Amino acid sequence: MGDRDWRPFIYGGLASIVAEFGTFPIDTTKTRLQIQGQKIDPRHVELRYTGMVDCFVKTSKQEGIKALYCGIWPAVLRQATYGTIKFGTYYSLKKALGARRADGGAVEHLPTNTLCAALAGGLSSAIANPTDVLKVRMQVGDEKRNLVRCFVSIYRAEGVAGLWRGVGPTSQRAALIAAVELPVYDACKRRLQPTLGDAPLNHLASSLLASLGSAVASTPLDVVRTRLMNQRNVKDSREPAQRIYRGTIDCFVQTVRNEGFLALYKGFVPTWLRMGPWNIIFFLTYEQLKQFY
């Protein structure tokens, strides 16, 4: 391995953290929109918000601006692990496999890029799943304690399994997003280079196209992931059970049966609006950090 192979991991993690800070309030509105309207969950039957803007305004007025950043620290911790592993693994695998091809990796190879991205996304998301559970619980408003107390509370009430709740759809979603987002970005960037060059405008356009594709592909799994992470299955039998869904497929079926197919796209607008700026901030930051190579 070369002496610079560690840099995609470091730059990927740093760029992910910067992007997370810049777009977190949009993610909070997305999470709250996805949770509401569950007819079989008595805690979230009510449709409190009509859309992203309404959720943003009501949350700010009723709970304060600070509530929009509730869960930011587990989100930052997640990006420090997830972002570092995901982008570092993708670019390292892509480079290693490209070097074995006849063209030496000079030409973008879509199947190779897609495979590398899916592996990197799924692996990194599974490892970082506990931080995602903490983030969702805090965004919904069920957990008002700090990061460490929230972690201990979930562990005591639900055990280790509680920290990996929803790991299936989370990993599937992450693999799907990465498999669409990263190869599309690389392909668009390569196609636009003759016209725009390897410049910020190229990175901006490629980021927007990549985010649209990943939002369409991943939102249904994101809804399922959010709902599974938000439910509880406490170890103490004296507390009432709150397990609504048995797993990914059951959550899909129950959601469509009780709320209709479009319920799988709850929070699509904030998802896309967050992915767009997130990708723009990430890739612009990443490309600038690459200048240190």
Automatic annotation (TrEMBL):
Q: SUPFAM superfamilies per the record?
A: Mitochondrial carrier
Against Pfam families, the record matches this protein to:
Mito_carr
Chief place where the protein resides: mitochondrion
Which InterPro entries does the UniProt record give? MCP, MCP_dom_sf, MCP_transmembrane, Mito_Metabolite_Transporter
Q: What Gene Ontology biological process does one annotation of this record name?
A: transmembrane transport
Q: Name one GO cellular component term.
A: mitochondrial inner membrane
How does this protein lie in the membrane? Answer: Multi-pass membrane protein
Q: Where are the Solcar repeats?
A: 7-96, 108-191, 198-292
The record, for PROSITE patterns, names: SOLCAR (PS50920)
Q: Which keywords fit this entry according to its UniProt record?
A: Membrane, Mitochondrion, Mitochondrion inner membrane, Repeat, Transmembrane, Transmembrane helix, Transport
List localization entries: Mitochondrion inner membrane
Asked if the Swiss-Prot or TrEMBL record annotates the protein with the keyword Isomerase, the reply is no
Q: Which family does it belong to?
A: Belongs to the mitochondrial carrier (TC 2.A.29) family.
By what name is this protein known?
A: Kidney mitochondrial carrier protein 1
Q: Which organism is it from?
A: Papilio xuthus (Asian swallowtail butterfly)
